[in-house]
Design goal:
The protein is mostly helical. The chain has 17 helices and 4 strands. Helix content is 73%, strand content 3%. It has a 4-stranded mixed sheet. A hairpin with a 6-residue loop joins strand 3 and strand 4. The relative contact order is 0.12.
């Protein structure tokens, strides 16, 4: 009888033992699986880049630090030349002799001002945009094609810049006491308008945009989009390979003209896992409303900048205005001074604006990892971006000069995600980004 009772109690005892042992077994199994060291995995990826290629990309990116300084100094030099030689005043006088209508005078002045900037800075533009890009193997376009694209950009700058300056000076003359406030509003609205029309009317002037037709690539992207609340029906491809070797994608547009676009270099050079990682990142920008948040941030920056302009322009104009032939804030001859002061403001603000953009990119990286679940694809495409971005900068260097996270930090984030999601992410494998074949075509 006792034996029967013991037998009856045996299943319950086994169930109790199983309940006690199960967590330990699961923990032991997890410990045996989750052996990925994110730091070591990151170093393995970084070490896969040959030393000569690493040195080349470092030199390219570090050279960009000096180019920022030289561009600033050249712009400042042009502004001071126009002011101290009184060329700006003569350009204004010519516009006034040509017409009595203030908006037209402003546009005529802008055309002269813009032409001077383009001509004086042309040697640096050719070096920076053509010679240097070819020297580092990042450009594919001949000089004629490159110059043609530059001419399109100059034409757009002439027209849109002239309209903006005419609007700005119209506001300044109408409300001279609060011009800085309304001037910032005009600037924000104008930039929003340009962003609104850019995907449809501006970007196609430089590249051909087609719908992605390959279902092997398109369908996973659209499935990911729908799964993340994005009502997407198309993915667009830009023929960027006619200009450069860079892999890229973006979300562009504003108020209904948004587009998810990838370039054909991404299709030609990257695996499907890499493409999904990149597109998950871009969807992160869309879902987290980075376009709108960015406008809000730069609207605040614009208002601060215009408040600075109001103070600084008055200080300089009181001391040098008569010598430079500037009649006051409403005089278009003072535009070089406004431009100089604004360039100083943004030059000093560079670490702050870079950090704001970089934080948004980090958020999009994390979103993309959770959406695409391709940590190794993320790491491999980060190495391709490292062809023209320094992979492993110092912390202060990254804060000041980087508007995207460094390759090291992006890969480390991906490997941390993989370590915490290893069963879903798949087994650890050795990276082979340098030899990964171009498996997809547009």
């Amino acid at each position: 009888m006792k034996g029967m009772k013991l037998v009856a109690l045996l299943p319950a005892a086994l169930t109790l033992l199983a309940a006690v042992a199960a967590p330990r077994a699961v923990a032991a199994q997890a410990a045996s699986v989750s052996k990925l060291d994110p730091v070591a995995a990151t170093q393995t990826y970084l070490a896969s880049v040959p030393a000569d290629k690493r040195a080349r990309s470092d030199a390219y990116f570090e050279g960009g630090y000096w180019l920022q300084l030289w561009d600033f100094l050249i712009g400042a030099g042009i502004a001071l030349l126009l002011l101290t030689r009184r060329w700006s005043g003569r350009m204004r006088d010519f516009a006034e002799r040509l017409t009595r209508r203030k908006p037209v005078q402003t546009f005529v002045y802008w055309a002269q001002y813009f032409a001077v900037i383009v001509l004086i800075s042309l040697p640096m533009t050719i070096y920076e945009g053509f010679i240097r890009e070819h020297a580092y193997g990042l450009a594919t376009q001949g000089f004629g094609g490159w110059l043609g694209d530059q001419a399109k950009g100059w034409a757009l700058g002439l027209v849109f810049g002239g309209v903006f300056v005419a609007l700005l000076y119209g506001v300044i003359r109408r409300v001279p006491r609060t011009w800085w406030l309304w001037g910032s509003v005009v600037t924000i609205v104008f930039l929003a308008f340009v962003q609104f029309i850019a995907p449809v009317f501006i970007m196609p002037l430089f590249n051909k945009y087609t719908r992605l037709a390959d279902p092997v690539v398109r369908e996973p992207i659209l499935q990911m989009a729908r799964a993340n609340g994005i009502d997407a029906t198309d993915v667009w491809v830009a023929d960027a390979s006619r200009q450069s070797t860079r892999v890229s994608a973006n979300v562009s547009g504003f108020l209904g003209t948004e587009r998810i676009t990838l370039n054909d270099n991404l299709l030609n050079r990257c695996s499907l896992a890499e493409i999904e990682a990149v597109m998950g990142h871009e969807m992160g920008h869309y879902v987290m409303n980075h376009v709108y948040k960015g406008f809000l941030f730069f609207a605040v920056v614009a208002m601060i900048g215009f408040a600075f302009l109001r103070w600084a322009f008055d200080v300089v104009a009181r001391r040098k205005g008569e010598a430079w032939g500037i009649r006051g804030i409403g005089d278009v001859a003072g535009l070089p001074l406004l431009g100089l002061l604004l360039s100083v403001f943004f030059f000093v603000l560079t670490p702050i604006t870079n950090s704001y953009i970089r934080i948004g990119e980090i958020e999009a990286d994390m979103y993309g990892l959770n959406a695409a679940r391709q940590p190794d694809g993320e790491a491999e495409v980060d190495l391709k971006l490292g062809e023209y971005r320094k992979l492993d900068p110092g912390n202060i260097e990254e804060i000041i000069f980087f508007d995207h996270p460094s390759g090291r930090n992006r890969i480390l984030m991906a490997m941390k995600w993989k370590a915490e999601n290893l069963p879903a992410a798949g087994p650890t494998s050795s990276p082979s980004p340098a030899s990964s074949p171009a498996v997809l075509k547009p």
